[in-house]
Amino acid sequence: MMPGQALTRPRPELKHSSFRMVVVAADAERIQRTLAKFSAARGYTYEGRYQVPGLLEGSLAGVDFQLTVRTRSVPADGSGTLALPAEGAEQCEVVIMSTTSGRAPIDDVLDDVVQSLRGATAYSEAELDQIVESMPLLYRYAKSDAAWNSWALVFRDHYVENSVGFLLACERAGLAPEWIYALSKGDRTSHRDRVHATFIERGYRSAVLDNSVIDGAAGESEQREALLVGADVNEFIKSAHDAGRRVLVVDDGGLIAQGRATESTGWERIDGAIELTVSGLQRISRTDVEVPIFNMARSRLKTHIAYAEIADSCLRRVRSLLHGQKLLGRRIVCLGFGTLGARVARGLRASGGRVLVVDTDSLALISAAEEGFETARTLGAALEREAPFLITGSTGAQALTAEDLPLLPQNVFLAGFATKDFALFSRNSENLSSRKISDIGTEYLLSGGRKAILLGDGRSLNLYEAEGIPNQGYDAYRAGTYLAAVSMCRSVEDLQPGVHVQAADQAIEDAGLFDAYYDTYIDVA
Q1: Are residues 249 and 107 part of one domain?
Q2: Which partner for 1 in 78, 116, 292, 488 could form a disulfide, CB atoms 3.0-4.6 Å apart?
Q3: Partners of 328 in the beta sheet?
């Protein structure tokens, strides 16, 4: 595997009613310890033995089943990390087989074993060092700082390597691990299990608070799980306050949308927040806010640097999923011509696509038209004029409606870069017949025998079984977020409640981050 393939390639796994095969980014000794701990916790027995160096065989048994587990050490292929594998790094191929005849299917037991092995995949110290080395700007600024001594942190974002880098930086600066609560936004990032395992191993709390819950689109089981997580977060915030610590949230509006920025909702109130996304700002606008919030979503850093990296990751991911499709000369409709959508449209046109832009904002349409794009006010109007093979969405709102379904051309691909754009399909509100296409997405059957293929899971496509942005690509944005967080910790007593637009920009400017970015990545001898 070439360096960087781990951005988009999921780890291989084979699944059958009587066996599982999985590749685990851990050595045989760690797998041995994990299986022993897993068995003890469930009242099973486990006995492992080495056949030869690098080849482990074990027996895992319960009351009415017996499994054989064979583990073979092989050189790490780079699929478990964004960096080149460290010298001598290994991973393991693990085969779990049922050796019991006449028993009912044991899929649940096999799946539990696989999940426990995935929990063994915390990044090694060598891999963590590689993450640190890949984010030089972040670690330029993350020095020991007394500002963290009286704070706790709730960090809610995608579970990717640069999130690991950010929290390691906070640790390095003096934030104790027990005062870090990490929350995944629920996207199926390729290394999410490794990230979670790393956070747990380092002493953080780690859980999932899915965006679908925040947006009111989750099912009953997800809502029940979110209530448990919410209660645990509340206990964490209360414990921090009882210990004399304030609580900072780095988020996309999820926790604030739940009412944690005001005392009138019954939740323990946080003390400050760093807002990362425009959708988060929209969520915040619908709730009362009694704490200061720094606006990273509209910062110069995100607008001029981070969005370019996000757009690049979107374009790379859609091209990788459409690797069997011709793009040159074919028609594409791009929904949304905002900061991200405009970059996506330009990128697809630069790749040879014939792009038409749809937006509800007249000024955005004027900008697109004056750049030479065809334009339309609605998707329906666009589909009446041409039959695209690809439709992208980056509006952050439901951009495709039931009225548009009869106009969709045969075998059209849908690529959403924001969660809501193609919610009609991802939530299947029209009860369409569908089939899953492994590692690609879902095919939906429309009227007249037409088919539409939703790439990924209808959420941010650049994060579907992928890492999204390389660590170096998000280094500056993580560094800027860190600088904003430290500024909040130092100045919170002097800040008024509400969203502060200039504060993040000022902290970044005062630190000289743009000069450091230029010197580090652009003006390199």
Answers
A1: no
A2: 78
A3: none
Q: Find the CATH number of the domain harbouring 323.
A: 3.40.50.720
Token pair, residue 42, equals 């469930």
Weakest-pLDDT range from 13-27, 336-350, 438-452:
13-27
Residues 253 and 340 grouped into a single domain: no
Q: Specify whether 262 is located in the same domain as 346.
A: no
The per-residue pLDDT for range 360-393, each reduced to its tens digit, is 999 999 999 999 999 999 999 999 999 999 999 9
Give the pLDDT band (50/70/90) at residue 99. Answer: confident
pLDDT digits (tens, 9 = 90+) for 330-342: 999 999 999 999 9
Which tokens is 18 given?
């009587």
The sign of the dihedral angle between the CA atoms of 292, 297, 299, 305 is positive
Of the three residues 88, 121, 154, the one that is the final residue of a domain is 121
Give the whole-angstrom CA distance, residue 207 versus residue 343. 33
* Least confident stretch, 99-113, 138-152, 486-500: 99-113
Same domain, residue pair 108 and 10: yes
Q: Which domain holds residue 138?
A: 128-302+471-522
Whole-prediction pTM value? Answer: 0.88
Q: Which residues contact 508 (CB under 8 A, 6 or more apart)?
A: 299, 300, 301, 480, 483, 484, 514
Strands 390-393 and 55-61: unpaired
Which DSSP string corresponds to 367-396? Answer: HHHHTT-EEESSHHHHHHH---SEEEE-SS
How far is the C-alpha of 440 from the C-alpha of 466, rounded, in Å?
12
**Distance from C-alpha of 317 to C-alpha of 44, rounded to nearest angstrom:** 42
